[in-house]
Amino acid sequence: MAAGEGLSARERADIERAAQRAGDLAGLTFSVLFADAEGDVRAYSERAHASLSHPASSVLVFVDPAARRLEIVTGSDALRRIDNRAAKLAALAMTSGFSNGDLAGGVVDGLQMLGEYGNHPPVMHTDTP
């Protein structure tokens, strides 16, 4: 399946709702892009993220089904709330769904996790020594 062409209208709507819920929860903008990457997948996904209207506060979930690649790109503000460890755990949840043949469900699960991580910014200091 190239670029998510096999997704039903319901699956697309589920992904859109999940992105909206994650954004509402985390106070960030979440986008999902299914595409056939041209060249290096990471570079392609970073260029796509940079083209978003507010990249600093955005998270892009990029899926290239043909290449079996997933990238999560976070902007500078979003990275303060969703660190690399959180993104890797969400990616693991997504790829688990993908391996079971559930592309949309994997993305929805990952978006939910990312929204939850983004809702709990890391503690930078405490009152105790």
Structural description of this entry:
The chain is an alpha+beta fold. It has a single domain, classed as Diaminopimelate Epimerase, Chain A, domain 1 (Roll), CATH 3.10.310.50. Helix content is 50%, strand content 15%. It has helices at 9-26, 41-50, 76-79, 84-99, 103-119, and strands spanning 29-34, 58-64, 69-74. Strands 1-2-3 form a 3-stranded mixed β-sheet, sandwiched between helices. Strand 2 (58-64) and strand 3 form a beta hairpin. The longest helix is centred in the N-terminal third of the chain and has 18 residues, at 9-26. The protein starts with 8 loop residues before the first helix and ends in a 10-residue tail after the last helix.
Write the layout of secondary structure elements.
Elements: H1 9-26, E1 29-34, H2 41-50, E2 58-64, E3 69-74, H3 76-79, H4 84-99, H5 103-119
Features:
single chain; 3-stranded mixed β-sheet; alpha+beta; 129 residues
Summarize the structure.
This protein has 129 residues and is an alpha+beta fold. Helix content is 50%, strand content 15%.
